[in-house]
Structure to design on (559 residues):
């Protein structure tokens, strides 16, 4: 395996960094009147302005050389060819097959996966059509009005984000609900709003072993059986999984199961049957449009030269900050209310993929890997954490995301929104010099002594990087492209760092420990040896929740 730190481009970028760290973007814009035009890229319905980054042509060339030397092109080819690039789980990584709209064969273990991809899509389409047009009836012959998706992580965030983003395309009769938290409050709140006769539950779990999901699913089934019978379950419960046996054991007829496969990672699964809530809500045609948009980005990622390749550019500019400037955080700020779930989705996509500390061959990495991803709708962020972005001491690159087309017909709103996006990007880049601050205060008639006291506080250093991604409109196609863009960005960064972006062993330890602790909390096993803090916490819990004789009800109806 290549050692990143030994690559010539990696070293050359360090020497470029010595000058680059002192460059101010103001000067770069002044020196090159065509900067905005040159650092601009359009793919399908997406436009990217990457001019407000601390980069020059020479740095970009260096970054692209690094991508080549690190093997981005070879790894990309391997992923699209269905090679088992997820080495620790010995799996192919083929979310691209789920939206392979050309149907060109993609083989895993000598078998073309496209026929099964298409067949599940067709089944989903038939089912979604029946529910949407009112042919699929509940046990009292009423149409479905509410869909409750029970799943967590990758089996929740993608459909939740897409249904929220594309609300304008949603079926007027269908109300979508998402239950992920095992805290009974979320399921209880949801069940209070729906009725068993008109509700469809989707139990979404790749493994069908996830504690939170199965607990919620069991409780939902008990709730349903208070009014419906066992035979009625077939009309109200469907499953999405790779695990037929566990679905059958749970009591869902496998005829009502929508399948996907081990080569679809949870956080990459919204294009698979996990996207069933999306298809129910938006309809088959819009779901296919979303796949088309993702496919368009896949084709671009696969074919475009690295220098003109949107995911590669975003990834490599990110590498520049993470590894050279030492900026370990990255913000996603959509200027769009319906995209308010996007930061959470990208947070999982990126952090679960690239939050790794060893390379593919198991050696500890000697450099930073995945950044901390966080964010919020930009306009709300402006009134909260943007202060730190403007005047704090961290390097915090930010992706500003907005729709060019108006999102509502309320006069004036969209203009105000977009003026704020553009203004923030300008402010991050330009800042405000002490002289500008001084001048402004003089114009306000402030006396000289006060001016000098205030200038340091009113000065903005600027030079703070941002990308601006604009969607021509927020529609299924462009949302497909946007999410595929981020998936490939994450992939490219993973290749640079030489890590496996497609496993997630880090989530296992807590799950293992929780099993034992659960048995201790409920008294099914005697207290075990832990650290003194954990033992104390278990003791405090049992004092509050268990009877003196030590019995501790697991499912307490009263609570
Ligand atoms: C995603 C992760 C994780 C997973 C959940 C739910 O890439 O693996 O978020 O999606 O843990 O798992 P199940 O779908 O198996 O219930």
């Amino acid at each position: 395996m290549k050692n990143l730190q030994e690559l010539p481009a990696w070293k050359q970028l360090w020497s470029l960094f010595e000058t680059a760290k002192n460059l101010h973007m103001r000067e770069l814009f002044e020196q090159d009147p065509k900067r905005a035009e040159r650092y601009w890229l359009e793919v399908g319905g997406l436009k990217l302005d990457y001019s407000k980054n601390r980069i020059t042509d020479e740095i970009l060339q260096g970054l692209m050389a690094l991508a080549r030397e690190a093997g981005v092109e070879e790894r990309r080819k391997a992923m699209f060819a269905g090679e088992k690039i997820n080495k620790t789980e010995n799996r192919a990584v083929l979310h691209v097959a789920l939206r392979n709209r050309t149907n060109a064969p993609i083989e895993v273990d000598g078998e073309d996966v496209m026929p099964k991809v298409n067949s599940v899509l067709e089944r989903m389409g038939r089912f979604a059509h029946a529910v949407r047009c009112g042919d699929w009836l509940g046990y009292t012959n009423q149409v479905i009005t509410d869909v409750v998706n029970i799943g967590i992580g990758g089996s929740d965030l993608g459909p939740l984000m897409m249904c929220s983003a594309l609300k304008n395309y949603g079926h007027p009769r269908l109300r979508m609900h998402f239950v992920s938290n095992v805290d009974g409050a979320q399921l209880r709140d949801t069940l209070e709003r729906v009725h068993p006769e008109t509700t469809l539950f989707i139990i979404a779990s790749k493994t069908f072993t996830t504690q939170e999901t199965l607990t919620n699913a069991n409780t939902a089934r008990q709730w349903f059986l208070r009014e419906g019978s066992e035979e009625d379950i077939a009309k109200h419960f469907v499953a999405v999984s790779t695990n037929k046996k566990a679905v059958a054991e749970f009591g869902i007829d496998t005829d009502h199961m929508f399948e996907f496969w081990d080569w679809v990672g949870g956080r990459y699964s919204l294009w698979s049957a996990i996207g069933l809530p999306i298809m129910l809500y938006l309809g088959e045609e819009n779901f296919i449009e979303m796949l088309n948009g993702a496919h368009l980005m896949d084709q671009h990622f696969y074919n475009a030269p690295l220098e003109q390749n949107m995911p590669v550019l975003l990834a490599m500019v990110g590498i520049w900050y993470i590894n050279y400037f030492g900026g370990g955080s990255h913000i996603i700020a959509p200027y769009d209310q319906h995209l308010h779930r996007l930061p959470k989705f990208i947070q999982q996509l990126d952090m679960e993929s690239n939050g790794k500390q060893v390379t593919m061959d198991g050696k500890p990495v000697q450099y930073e890997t995945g950044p901390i991803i966080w964010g919020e709708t930009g306009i709300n962020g402006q009134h909260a954490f943007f202060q730190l972005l403007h005047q704090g001491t961290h390097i915090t690159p930010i992706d500003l995301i907005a729709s060019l087309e108006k999102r509502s017909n309320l006069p004036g709103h969209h203009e105000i929104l977009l003026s704020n996006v553009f203004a923030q990007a300008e402010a991050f880049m330009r800042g405000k010099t002490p002289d500008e601050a001084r001048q402004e205060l003089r114009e306000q008639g402030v006396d000289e002594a006060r001016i000098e006291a205030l200038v340091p506080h009113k000065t903005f250093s600027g030079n703070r990087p941002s990308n601006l991604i604009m969607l021509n409109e927020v529609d299924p196609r462009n949302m497909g492209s946007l999410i595929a863009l981020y998936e490939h960005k994450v992939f490219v960064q993973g290749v640079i760092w030489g890590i496996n972006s497609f496993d997630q062993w880090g989530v296992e330890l807590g799950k293992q420990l929780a099993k034992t602790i659960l048995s201790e909390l409920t008294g099914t096993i005697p207290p075990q040896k832990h650290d003194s803090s954990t033992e104390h916490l278990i003791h405090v819990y049992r004092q509050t929740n268990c009877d003196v004789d030590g019995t501790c009800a697991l499912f307490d109806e009263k609570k």
User: Anything to note?
Assistant: Confidence is low (pLDDT under 50) at residues 555-559. The radius of gyration is 26 Å. The pocket of glucose-6-phosphate is lined by residues 152-155, 205-207, 210, 213, 265-267, 352, 504 (CB under 6 Å). Residues 506-554 form one domain.
